[in-house]
Amino acid sequence: MNMKTLLLAAISVASLTFGAAVQAAGISVEIGDRPYYSHGPRYYSGDYEMIWVPGHWSEHRNHWVHGHYVRGEHRHHHYYDDRVRSDVRIEERR
Q: Are strands 42-45 and 48-53 parallel, antiparallel or unpaired?
């Protein structure tokens, strides 16, 4: 009995001294799906906008669908032709 008490006291003293000397880098526990992966909620990939769809419960197959990116709208490029057209002539006023 005396040996068990002595061993318990030694373990508690050692944990107090070593616990203060050694700092834990950090512990992270994640439950569920990540809010985004690498790009945030929206980003452009080429000419298309990629939109984040959060994880959800599928009603069709009764399983969890993890969050993922889906291709959204095409990026609209507006090119204006500033050149003078040959078929349109502007006459000067006199």
A: antiparallel
